[in-house]
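TASK: fixed-backbone design
INPUT:
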């Protein structure tokens, strides 16, 4: 079905830039970059999946049943996303808020060409009808890598507006607190949109700039015709590797310091902050519960609890939960049992999502959804779509959203400042300022 060829490369960074530049003329592109972050569950440095055209052929999917059938029959790779609003198919929920982006609720494609970078090699996995193009494609990529000159950041200054202004944010935050004090929920992730209308940006160059500022482990550039996702996510939603399922929720954020001493103090403060730890533990318990729906008895484990990791922009508190599932477990059932991810919803999950819909102003769409892939064996890996810019080039609409967890200990001013901290990288890239 797919031929495999490998070529040794001399420079990871040069070939990454070359691959991205080489891919840009295709209509469908999925680029996933670990930015050299490595842990026990890492699979590759970079993966690029492309199709030349968007169309309604057998290689494009907008519902789960078609995807399931393709995985069962073709046993091939699928790349794409589930938007947050797929929750409405899984549960008795709705999404009626404003949507300026108009992305499909679900989109997956079977790539014609698939390229990995791993362990110093460029690996080509092309469908049979495209295997004769490998040598020519590698020659073009190599020429771009060897002739690479530094690219400047795009000169753009986008006027960003807020969907929810500060006073309205405080009012809504207090309403979340009222729900918590009544016992309706324990925690909810409250998100707000920043946006620009009648705006043109250079999506690929903007993604490169955003990625260079953040260098996260689950960075993604996704192009589907005129729809673009520029994602600098630090968070894994769910991975299936054989019978092992891994989720790594993030709850707890702190700024980086201006000196080593200040940075260490901020990291230590986050690690021991009772409110931040309570947030993380609540969501970790929710994830444990989600994984126990399919996990073999006694297999659900918290491998790491409230561990602080440092990224270029922020410190993050991350927990790692794993489970072992039956060999014949349907991968789509695992998604349905755990989606949307607890870190972007709250606890209890259904009640939190209903209140979120009531109090937020914008339909979340792909934001707080997930992007990733299924492999031929039914394994998969998906991120959480946060720290991301979404762009509909046809509508000339640019959007990014940020959120924070509201708990009984929340102070609305602190939550608002956390949102501004999370928005900093996306805003600086779009406005042309420094993060």
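OUTPUT:
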């Amino acid at each position: 079905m797919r031929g495999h060829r490998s070529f040794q490369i001399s420079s990871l960074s040069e070939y990454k830039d070359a691959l991205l530049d080489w891919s840009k003329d295709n209509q469908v592109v999925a680029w996933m970059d670990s930015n050299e972050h490595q842990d026990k569950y890492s699979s590759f440095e970079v993966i690029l999946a492309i199709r030349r055209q968007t169309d309604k052929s057998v290689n494009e999917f907008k519902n789960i049943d078609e995807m399931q059938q393709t995985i069962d029959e073709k046993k091939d790779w699928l790349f794409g996303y589930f938007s947050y609003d797929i929750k409405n198919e899984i549960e008795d929920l709705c999404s009626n808020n404003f949507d300026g982006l108009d992305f499909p609720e679900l989109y997956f494609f079977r790539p014609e060409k698939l390229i990995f970078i791993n362990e110093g090699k460029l690996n080509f996995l092309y469908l049979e009808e495209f295997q004769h193009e490998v040598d020519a494609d590698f020659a073009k990529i190599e020429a771009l890598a060897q002739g690479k000159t530094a690219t400047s950041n795009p000169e753009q200054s986008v006027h960003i507006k807020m969907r929810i202004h500060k006073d309205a944010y405080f009012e809504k935050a207090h309403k979340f607190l009222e729900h918590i004090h009544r016992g309706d929920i324990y925690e909810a992730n409250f998100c707000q949109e920043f946006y620009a209308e009648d705006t043109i940006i250079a999506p690929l160059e903007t993604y490169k700039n955003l990625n260079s500022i953040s260098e996260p482990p689950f960075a993604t550039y996704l192009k589907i015709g005129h729809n673009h996702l520029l994602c600098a996510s630090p968070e894994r939603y769910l991975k299936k590797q054989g019978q092992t399922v891994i989720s790594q929720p993030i709850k707890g954020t702190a700024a980086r310091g201006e000196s080593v001493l200040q940075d260490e103090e901020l990291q230590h403060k986050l690690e021991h902050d009772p409110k931040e730890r309570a947030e993380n533990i609540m969501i970790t318990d929710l994830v444990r519960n989600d994984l126990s729906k399919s996990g073999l008895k006694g297999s659900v484990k918290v491998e790491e609890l409230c561990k602080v990791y440092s990224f270029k922009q922020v410190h993050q508190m991350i927990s790692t939960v794993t489970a072992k599932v039956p060999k014949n477990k349907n991968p789509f059932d695992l998604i349905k049992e755990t989606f949307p991810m607890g870190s972007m919803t709250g606890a209890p999950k259904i009640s939190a999502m209903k209140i979120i819909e009531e109090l937020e102003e914008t339909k979340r769409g792909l934001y707080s959804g997930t992007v990733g892939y299924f492999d031929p064996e039914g394994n998969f890996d998906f991120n959480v779509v946060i720290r991301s810019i979404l762009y509909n080039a046809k509508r000339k609409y640019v959007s990014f959203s940020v959120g924070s967890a509201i708990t009984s200990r929340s102070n609305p001013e602190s939550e608002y400042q956390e949102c501004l901290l999370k928005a900093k990288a996306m805003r600086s890239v779009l406005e042309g300022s420094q993060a």
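COMMENT: The mean pLDDT is 93.
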